[in-house]
Specification:
The N and C termini lie far apart (52 Å). α1 packs across α7 and α3 packs parallel to α4 (100-128). The protein is of the alpha/beta class. The protein has a single domain (7-251), classed as NAD(P)-binding Rossmann-like Domain (Rossmann fold, 3-Layer(aba) Sandwich). It has nine helices and nine strands. The strands form two sheets. Strands 3-2-1-4-6-7-9 form a seven-stranded parallel β-sheet, sandwiched between helices. Strands 5-8 form a two-stranded parallel sheet.
């Protein structure tokens, strides 16, 4: 395990998990570029931690701004050792209710913003022969349920990106991890949440009920965001960090149930699965 000082860049630090990760990293003595769309929301990190904190404005849907932030961080710290892609938000909607502009905006932030940030830091990490990219995914990136179909889709895409990226850049000394929190007490399900403005009555007894439950329990979820931050900090000290780190009793239960169901389905349909190839030798 390594506790040497590292140079961090974290997206989405104004509230919630991103803010906690930034604080934990700074408290541990690391240099951290803390970013948010409104830079004044993260200026207090500079006030509290001095030159170890670099407050920068960043909208992850703006590719040029991402490149400028990476350049500014590299110039200030001399490089980037850890990128944490945390910026993102939710969208509650049945698939049929989904609004095109909202869905595309969701992907622009939750997925394409991550792609652009990774592409911006990789040249520097390859040149220095080290680095760690940590993508904050979600339980819904592994198990999809209504009314999170579109949010889950962004996180499923992020999971695929993370898995393939880890195989591409491992030879360069770059580590890649996805963190999958379950339900945590942040503003994800309240202030930050978007919702379809055109609900359909046919989904009132299922999807709409689930929407209401998510909003009602937003302030009572079991997960402690500070402990997510502690786990992320721990990942950066490991010589061989896991590709995926599940955080929370709920995500552990949900993923184990999905694995069991998937295994049972594979076994049930194995004969069909194996009966689609040409005969051997042809």
């Amino acid at each position: 395990m390594s506790n040497e000082q590292k140079r961090w860049l974290i997206t989405g630090c104004s509230t919630g998990i991103g803010r906690e990760i930034a604080r934990v990293a700074l408290e541990a003595g690391h240099q951290v570029a803390v970013t948010a769309r409104k830079v004044e929301t993260v200026q207090d990190f500079v006030d509290d931690f001095g030159p170890g904190a670099l407050a920068l404005a960043l909208d992850v849907t703006d590719r040029e701004q991402i490149r400028s932030v990476v350049a500014a961080t590299t110039e200030s710290f001399g490089g980037i050792d850890v990128l944490v892609n945390n910026a993102g938000y939710g969208y509650l909607s049945a698939v049929e209710e989904g609004e095109d502009a909202e869905i595309r905006a969701l992907f622009d932030t939750n997925y394409f913003g991550v792609v652009d940030a990774i592409q911006a830091v990789l040249p520097g990490m390859r040149a220095q022969g080290s680095g760690h990219i940590i993508n904050i995914s979600s339980m819904t990136g592994l198990v999809a349920n209504p009314p999170n179909a579109f949010y889950s889709s962004t996180k499923f895409a992020l999971e695929g990106l993370t898995e393939a990226l880890s195989k591409e850049v491992g030879a360069f000394g770059i580590k890649v991890s996805a963190v999958e929190p379950g339900g945590f007490r942040t503003d994800w399900a309240s202030r930050s949440m978007h919702e379809s403005s055109a609900p359909i009555d046919a989904y009132a007894d299922d999807v709409a009920v689930r929407k209401d439950l998510i909003k009602q329990f937003a302030d009572h979820l079991p997960g402690d965001p500070r402990k997510v931050a502690d786990a992320v900090l721990m990942l950066t000290t490991l010589e061989a960090p896991p590709l995926r780190l599940l955080l929370g009793h709920d995500v552990l239960k949900a993923v184990r149930e999905k694995i069991a169901q998937l295994t049972a389905s594979i076994d049930e349909w194995e004969a069909v699965t194996k009966d689609v190839n040409f005969p051997a030798g042809t």
